[in-house]
Amino acid sequence: MTPTQRTATAWTLLLVLVVAGTSGCTRFLPEHPAPPPLGARFDGDTLVVKFPMCPTDEVRRVEVYDWDAAEDDSPVALWWASDPTVSTIREDGVVPLWTGEGFTHHIAPRPAATAATTLDVSYTAPDGNGVDGVLPLTEIERASLGEGEYWTSDGPRTATEIDARLDCGTGAPNS
User: How far apart are CA 135 and CA 115, in angstroms?
Assistant: First the structure.
């Protein structure tokens, strides 16, 4: 092997290692913690979402998308509402979907909302940050929930338990 061939082989090997190290071979890197799950329950026919909130958090806008259509280049919101007028929405993160009650601005749910089986629900705070999560409606409907409990992806939890899983300035989410 000539010196030029050895150099080319070394550069090729280095390139392969760099590409492999940055393309999903991350089992040796610490994982980013997932945000705490949001909660949801049906109060009669109303789907109520509980976003995890710290005491200083504030909801400014809520958006709902069809999770199954999220691969579209420009998914259209099934429903949105902004500028909450009540503290249970704005400060506590308890949001009844589809009605617009408790918000200054909202749209009527789009017809596709009735066909959606899995929702992507998010809130945005005044600073642009927020939380989102996926809600499988069939699982929520079938969940056996006690008084004041919400379905979450890791089992029933109260609003207080959902909020307690957040990192509110301590450096890491609680479990």
Answer: 14
Tell me, yes or no, whether 129 and 152 share the same domain: yes
State which residues form the domain around 11.
1-31
The answer to whether 175 touches 46, Cβ cutoff 8 Å, is no
- The pLDDT tens digits of the residues spanning 37-61 come to 899 999 999 999 999 999 999 999 9
Lowest-pLDDT choice from 71-75, 123-127, 165-169:
71-75
The gap between the terminal CA atoms of the chain, to the nearest Å, is: 57
C-alpha of 79 from chain center: 16
What are 145's two structure tokens?
Answer: 């929930």
- 172 within a domain of the structure (yes/no): no
Residue 132 domain flag = yes
**48, 98: one domain:** yes
CA distances for 132 relative to 4, 8, 15, 35, 44, angstroms: 53, 47, 37, 9, 23
- In a domain? residue 175: no
Q: What is the mean pLDDT of the chain?
A: 82
Q: Residue 54 is which amino acid?
A: C
Clarify whether residues 58 and 23 are in a common domain.
no
